[in-house]
Amino acid sequence: MFSPQGPTARELAVQALSSVERGYDLLAPKFDHTPFRTPDVVLDATARELAALGPFEAGLDLCCGTGAGLGVLRAAGARRVVGVDRSAGMLAVAAEADERGKANGADGPGAADGADRRGGAELVRADVRALPFRSAFDLAVSFGAFGHFLAGDRRALFAAAREALRPGGLLAFPVAAPPRVGSRGYWLTWGFDAAMRVRNALWRPPFVMYYRTFPLSVARAELAEAGFAVGTVPLPLPELGERPDGTPRCRLVLARRP
């Protein structure tokens, strides 16, 4: 499915009937061949904006998955790069990709030319709601992960991220504009979320993955509740284009630990 190297329909069904952690362990070897991986255009656009705000010395990727976002941290100047995820399978794929990058002298999408790779990335298996770090980073990022957390869990995640950042540290992540009501994208995401809610009502363990629970207004409110100072106007990512009304399709949320 998706590509010749991607998962089959049967493999996706098995994943969907597993827990989030087990599901991603199963999907990990083929994850980068699915649409679930954050597109390079999003990574590159984020990297350019953060590089202009940096340099940052130590960077943390929350729910790093197979490591697609690690190059964004390096592009922002981070010499220490750490990725955290609960899935051992995803971390194993990230470690392999990072080793290949070291051998080839390249960081992949979002990486700055000539980025310093000494030491490679540190990959930590941990629950991002209870991070094993205190005031250790000046930049944290996350890509495509917040749909795996219900509201209460996101609050714990943001509180943990705040503690992991140094005073003045920055948490950054892209948020896409919601699809226009009645559009194909609107009905696709609505239908997916409805199916997932039915699945979770009938089957255990739950698999939390929703697309319509985290608009920009909710993100800003939850960040403020966690003690972040949130910019009044999130940065537009012009590479992602505009909607018919002229507003950006995607913005970069920037939240600082005071």
UniProtKB/TrEMBL annotation:
On the tree of life, the source organism's domain of life is Bacteria
Name the CDD domains on file. Answer: AdoMet_MTases (cd02440)
Please cite one Gene Ontology biological process associated with this protein: methylation
GO terms (molecular function) for this protein are:
S-adenosylmethionine-dependent methyltransferase activity
Report the residue ranges that make up the Methyltransferase type domain in this protein: 60-173
Q: InterPro entries attached here? A: Methyltransf_11 (IPR013216), Methyltransf_Superfamily (IPR050508), SAM-dependent_MTases_sf (IPR029063)
Provide the alphabetized UniProt keywords: Methyltransferase, Transferase
Name the UniProt record assigns to this protein: Methyltransferase domain-containing protein
Native source species: Streptomyces mimosae
